[in-house]
Amino acid sequence: MGDSDERQAADAAPGSWGAVFATTATTVFLAELGDKTQLAALLLSAQSGRPLVVFAGASLALISSSLVGVVLGRWLARLLAPELLERLAGILMVVLGLWLGRQAMLTLPMFTAAAG
């Protein structure tokens, strides 16, 4: 195996730089598609007529919020076992999903009319 073959194999190994980068980029990209942030950027771009400025602002905001997540994740990884951190993240996602679902149900006309 040559130097470049070994480097490619190392980059493809789980936990390697290439694997972590690709997984993170793909996950964040898919998670951000069609969310409120993307819709806000779409509307701001349409209203302002300055798509490059909106892109720069939205990019800076995403980078900043991602930095907070990375720093917080690094700090939590030092305090908690990976399995516990994974479970806590899962529980938080379920709780947020239930809370958002409840909020949506409370704002639907057919449910608010029945309650009143």
Give structural notes.
It is a single chain. With 116 residues, the protein is mainly alpha-helical. The chain has a domain at 80-116. Helices cover 87% and strands 0% of the residues. It contains six helices and no strands. Helix 3 (36-48) packs antiparallel against helix 4. The longest helix has 29 residues, at 51-79. The model has no long low-confidence stretch (mean pLDDT 84).
SSE layout and pairings?
Layout: H1 3-12, H2 17-32, H3 36-48, H4 51-79, H5 82-107, H6 109-115
Mean pLDDT: 84
The major pleated sheet works out as:
none
The rounded distance between the terminal residues' Cα atoms is: 73 Å
Strand content: under 5%
Beta strands, count: 0
From the spread of the alpha carbons, the general shape counts as: flat
- What is the helix/strand order? HHHHHH
Number of helices: 6
Low-confidence stretches: none
Helical content (DSSP H or I, runs of 4+): over 70%
Classify the secondary structure makeup into a structural class: mainly alpha
User: Rg from C-alpha positions?
Assistant: 20 Å
Features:
single chain, 116 residues, mainly alpha
Could you write a compact summary of the structure shown?
The chain is an all-alpha fold and 116 residues long. It is 87% helix and 0% strand.
